[in-house]
Amino acid sequence: MYPNYIQPNCISTFIIYSKNGEHRYLLIRRCSSYLTGTWQMVTGGIQEPETAVQAALREIFEETGLVPSKFYSADAVEIFYLKTKDKIAFVPVFLAFVDELNSVTLCPLEHDAYEWLSYEEAKERLVWSEQKRIIQHIHENFVLKEPLEIHRIDI
Questions:
Q1: How is the chain split among helix, strand and coil, in percent rounded to 5?
Q2: Which of 19, 25, 60, 147 makes an SS bond possible with 122, Cβ 3.0 to 4.6 Å?
Q3: What's the Rg (C-alpha) of the chain?
Q4: Which of 59, 80, 62 is nearest to 13 (CA)?
Q5: Is the pLDDT reported for residue 1 higher than 70?
Q6: How many helices (H) and strands (E) does the chain have?
Q7: How far from chain centre, in Å, is Cα 7?
Q8: Phi, psi angle pair for 109, to nearest 5°
Q9: Which helix (H) or strand (E) holds 125?
Q10: In three state form, how does the secondary structure of 38-98 look?
Q11: pLDDT tens digits, residue range 40-87?
Q12: To the nearest whole number, what is the mean pLDDT of the chain?
């Protein structure tokens, strides 16, 4: 007998550039009416009949124009209270590694700026405690250490 499962309706994805011991996290600034001016990782809704993985890959491309060279489940779920809906959100987190820094193309309806930041700068720039917890988890388990193959997702 399987336990009850929660069907996610949105995703969160951190994008990282790593080369020669240098690690940069991509953050994008919201310009839409929702959370205007806040910096975040790639986020977005899951559209029927997508899986969370498919939604994450689609949102990465739609919001940044990037295509990951490696893609992982971050072995984490972001949990937060969404006051506009009076609900608790359980958001699967993914991690995308990219090979280039200069090829970001933002969706101008959603984001108006981007920056590649060090781990410390990115953690400081993020607003929500769950985002800070997740980026620390990613940094410690996927950047400072070689990611486990069990978390890798073929794309």
A1: 25, 35, 40
A2: 25
A3: 15
A4: 59
A5: no
A6: 3, 7
A7: 18
A8: -80, -20
A9: helix 119-125
A10: CEECEEEECCCCCCHHHHHHHHHHHHHCCCCCEEEEEEEEEEEEECCCCEEEEEEEEEEEE
A11: 999 999 999 999 999 999 999 999 999 999 999 999 999 999 888 899
A12: 94
Question: What values do phi and psi take at 154, rounded to 5?
Answer: -70, 135
Q: What's the angle, vertex CA 10, arms to CA 4 and CA 15, rounded to 5?
A: 120
- pLDDT tens, position by position, 87-105: 999 999 999 999 988 789 9
- Torsion from C-alpha of 144, 103, 49, 128, nearest 10 degrees: 50
The answer to whether the peptide bond before residue 49 is cis (omega within 30 degrees of 0) is yes
Question: According to the model, what pLDDT value does residue 3 have?
Answer: 80
For residues 68-90, b (16+ Cβ closer than 10 Å) or e, as one string? Answer: bebbbbbbbebeeeeeeeeeebe
Which distant-in-sequence residues (6+ apart) come within 8 Å of 71 by Cβ? 53, 56, 57, 94, 95, 96, 97, 152, 153, 154, 155
Angstrom distance (rounded) from CA 125 to CA 120: 9
